[in-house]
Specification:
The chain is mainly α and 250 residues long. Helices cover 78% and strands 0% of the residues. The protein is globular and about 60 Å long.
C-alpha cells in the first residue's frame, strides 16, 4: 500500500505539471464565460429570466459532459500511457519498488483525481458565474441540485476514461488513440440513436445519468441499474487495461 501511495503521488504530481492542465483550465474558463454571456444576452433580449443562477451550472454540465470532459480525459489518459512509452520514461516508473499493478492503478487513480478536480473546478466556476450575473435567483435547493449533479457525473466520465486507457494500451501513438477515442465515442453515440434498445448499455448514454438524480420524480430502480452497468463496465475495462499493460515489453 505504501508503494501505491508513493506511485500515486508521483503520477499525480507529474500530471499537474503538464501544460495540458493549464490549457484545460483556460478552456473551461473561456467556455463558461461565453456560455454565461450568451445566457445574459438571451435574457436581456427576451426581457425575462430564461436561465437562473441555479440552472446555469446544469446547462454547463450538459454541454461539458459530451464535449470538454471526454476530450480532456482522452488527452490525459493518452499522455500518461502513450506519451510515456514514446518518451521511454515508462521504464523509470516500472523501476520503482512497485508492482506493475501498482503503477497501473496509480496512473488510473491520477486520471480519476484529474476528473474529480476538473468537475470541481467547473462547478465552482459555473456557480460563481451564475451568482455574479443573476444573484436574485440564487437558492439553497438549486445549489444542492447542482452539487448532486456534478458529484454523480464523475462515474460515467471515469468509465469513459478507463475505455481510453484500454485504447492507449492497444494503440502505440497518442494521436492515434485520440482519433480512435473520437471514433468510438461517435460510434457509441450514433448506435444509441439508431439502436435505442441497446442505448442503456452504451457509456455515452450514461453521461446524462445525473438527470435521474435531480428529476422531480426520482426513479431509484433506473439509477441503480445504470450504476451497476457502469461499475461492471468499469471493472472489465480496468482488468482489460491492466492485462494489456502487463503484457507490454519495454
Amino acid at each position: 500500500m505504501e508503494g501505491f501511495r508513493a506511485a500515486f503521488a508521483v503520477e499525480t504530481c507529474k500530471l499537474w505539471k503538464k501544460k495540458k492542465i493549464i490549457a484545460a483550465a483556460v478552456l473551461s474558463i473561456v467556455a463558461v464565460l461565453i456560455g454565461q454571456l450568451a445566457v445574459v444576452a438571451i435574457n436581456n433580449s427576451l426581457g425575462l429570466r430564461v436561465v437562473g443562477s441555479g440552472e446555469f451550472p446544469l446547462i454547463v454540465l450538459s454541454f461539458f459532459q459530451y464535449t470538454i470532459f471526454p476530450l480532456f480525459v482522452t488527452f490525459v489518459a493518452a499522455d500518461m500511457f502513450n506519451g510515456e512509452f514514446s518518451a521511454n520514461t515508462m521504464k523509470l516508473a516500472l523501476m520503482r519498488p512497485v508492482s506493475r499493478l501498482g503503477v497501473f492503478s496509480a496512473k488510473v487513480g491520477a486520471i480519476a483525481a484529474f476528473i474529480a478536480a476538473n468537475l470541481l473546478f467547473v462547478l465552482v466556476l459555473s456557480l460563481a458565474a451564475g451568482f455574479a450575473f443573476n444573484p436574485a435567483s440564487a437558492g439553497l435547493a438549486g445549489v444542492l441540485r447542482v452539487l448532486v449533479a456534478y458529484a454523480v457525473s464523475f462515474l460515467p466520465v471515469f468509465v469513459f476514461g478507463l475505455l481510453v486507457v484500454v485504447l492507449a494500451n492497444v494503440v502505440r501513438g497518442g494521436l492515434a488513440v485520440f482519433f480512435l477515442a473520437v471514433v468510438v465515442f461517435a460510434g457509441f453515440y450514433a448506435a444509441g440513436l439508431f439502436f435505442s434498445q441497446f442505448e442503456s448499455f452504451l457509456i455515452t448514454s450514461m453521461f446524462d445519468w445525473y438527470r435521474h438524480w435531480i428529476a422531480e420524480s426520482v426513479n431509484v430502480f433506473k439509477i441503480i441499474r445504470q450504476a451497476l452497468i457502469m461499475i461492471g463496465c468499469g471493472t472489465m475495462l480496468f482488468a482489460a487495461g491492466y492485462w494489456l499493460f502487463d503484457r507490454k515489453e519495454l
